[in-house]
Amino acid sequence: MSLTLVFRIQAVLFGLFGLGALLAPAAMMGSFNFEAGRSTADLLQGLSLMLLAMSYISWQMPNWAGDNLKTVGMFYAVWHVLYVILSGWQVSTGAFPGGLENILNQVGPDVVLAILFFWKSR
Description:
- The chain is an all-alpha fold and about 120 residues long.
- Helix content is about 85%, strand content about 0%.
- The mean pLDDT is about 90.
């Protein structure tokens, strides 16, 4: 597995979450055991554009960064660790629904991507 492939995997995940948030925000929130009111769904749709942009950036980054790809990969590794920390704090304070399924859905992809980015960027 190459670092380029890790970037592409991240791009696909961002794209899937972005499309889900854009096209079916209430269903997306429901999959994480949140009730989505109209304003929450509207907010998630707005954030979906950021996710779709991050998907494109992640897909193109191997082409753009060239010899500096490992530096960018290390940045993404740290970024995913920060998401894991934030998610853990949200679960511990009750801001995010707990339960093993929700924790795995929220933290799992970030843990895997952080490990892959650290491993392939060293």
